Amino acid sequence: MLEIYNNDSITIIEDLKDFITVIFVIVDDIYQEVTPTYIKNRRNSNHSIMSDSEIITVSLAGELMSIDSENAYGFF
Fold it and tell me: pLDDT digit string (tens) for 14-50?
């Protein structure tokens, strides 16, 4: 169980799906703010299977769960 402390409240994350969803929302919000337009609108990005935010999320979640290899994620 993970607890996230906000200014006035505590959010408890009880399962892996919610944990990954929270990571994705945070990553995607930051990604949209800091990534330059030329990277977001690069060629052939519409043909990709996963978005940049999803790839970053999977990498972060794997690191946070102490998974040492990208091969262990099962879809790379």
Answer: 788 888 998 999 999 999 999 998 888 888 877 888 9
Q: Which backbone phi and psi does 36 adopt, to 5 degrees?
A: -65, 155
How many angstroms separate the CA atoms of 56 and 62, rounded? Answer: 10
Which two tokens mark 28? 């995607």
Strands 10-13 and 2-5: antiparallel
Q: Please tell me the pTM assigned to this model.
A: 0.70
Q: Spell 32-43 as b/e; 16+ CB within 10 A means b.
A: eeeeeeeeeeee
How many other C-beta atoms lie within 10 A of the C-beta of residue 19?
Answer: 17
